Amino acid sequence: MPKKTTIPFAKYSQQIKAKAPLVQVLNNYVTIHDVANVILASGGRPVMTDNLPNSQDVVKTADLLLINAASPRPNQELLDLAATAKNDQHPVVLDPVGVAAMPSKLKLCQDLIDQGLVTAVKGNASEIRSLLFERSQGSGVDLGPGDEVTLANLADFAPAFKAYALEKGIILAMSGPIDLVTDGERLAVIENGHPWMASYTGSGCQLSGVLASFLAGNPGEDLFYLTTAAMVSYGVAGEIAAQVLQPYEGNATYSNRVIDQVFLLEAKELERRAKYAIQ
Q1: Which UniProt keywords apply (predicted)?
Q2: Binding-site residue ranges
């Protein structure tokens, strides 16, 4: 795939490590450990306070707030914390985990977006289709059959994808067989990644952690390019992790290998492997 724009991967990675941004994470309990580790691996510092008074204090001092919609916190509490981050001019990343199966969480995400409290949204195709069309074939937190976006059906999906981001004033990112990023005008199509990234719980949550580090660690940079860089970086880490996996190792080890490769990934290797085009 030809690259029409060169993204400064090395610059972004260096700035994350130099800043070591503090990321406040409101996560589900299943993947919280992996999300913390992948934020550390990408150069950020995670904090995951679990009661309201402390959460409000941390949100005010953190560089970014990451909200996982499957967090067990009450919806209004999540809205209030996002409003605090917004008032303090801190970015908010939303991962709409499970909205295809949970109407109350879909409503939460719609409210966060419609109230202008969200900077970027990252989800799988079923989650994104639920936001765009209020319907999908997803069940639980998984991508549903028939919801996938590929190069073959991209032309049918892209207009609605871009229009939603433009209308809501957000960066919209979607993971899958191909990854997509848009700001409503530009569209990045990314072909990095590995099929095994769908074989373990939490790969999407990990990706949101990487995205949070990129946005928090690079204030003032172009959010579209930052989000694209985060998606490419995580996809390349997944590719390398599959290559170093031993014959007797399976999906649980692979999950850790991905985090390892986020930590070890060098800019030159990332640039060599990156497969993306910006339309």
Answers
A1: ATP-binding, Kinase, Magnesium, Metal-binding, Nucleotide-binding, Thiamine biosynthesis, Transferase
A2: 48, 122, 175, 202
In the annotated binding site for substrate, the residues are 48, 202
The domain that contains 23 carries what CATH number? 3.40.1190.20
Establish if 2 belongs to a structural domain. no
Residue 57 has pLDDT above 50, yes or no: yes
Indicate the pTM of the whole model: 0.93
Asked whether residue 4 is domain-assigned, the answer is no
The percentage of the chain sitting over the pLDDT mark of 70, rounded to a whole number, equals 91
Place of tokens 């207009």: 159
Are the C-beta atoms of 69 and 109 separated by less than 8 Å?
yes
Mean predicted confidence (pLDDT) in 231-246? 96
Range of the domain at 63: 9-278
Q: Which two three-digit tokens encode residue 43?
A: 């150069």
Structure tokens at 4: 């029409």
> Is 225 a member of any domain?
yes
Other C-beta atoms closer than 10 Å to the C-beta of 184 total 18
Q: Which residues are annotated as a binding site for ATP?
A: 122, 175
pLDDT tens, position by position, 251-270: 999 999 999 999 999 989 99
Burial class for 111, CB neighbours closer than 10 Å (0-12, 13-18, 19+): middle
Residues in the chain: 279
Strand order of the β-sheet with 45-47 is 45-47, 22-26, 64-68, 92-95, 120-124, 171-175, 179-182, 187-190, 276-278
Residue 11 has pLDDT above 80, yes or no: yes
Distance CA 81, CA 200 (A): 30
Is 54 among the domain residues?
Answer: yes
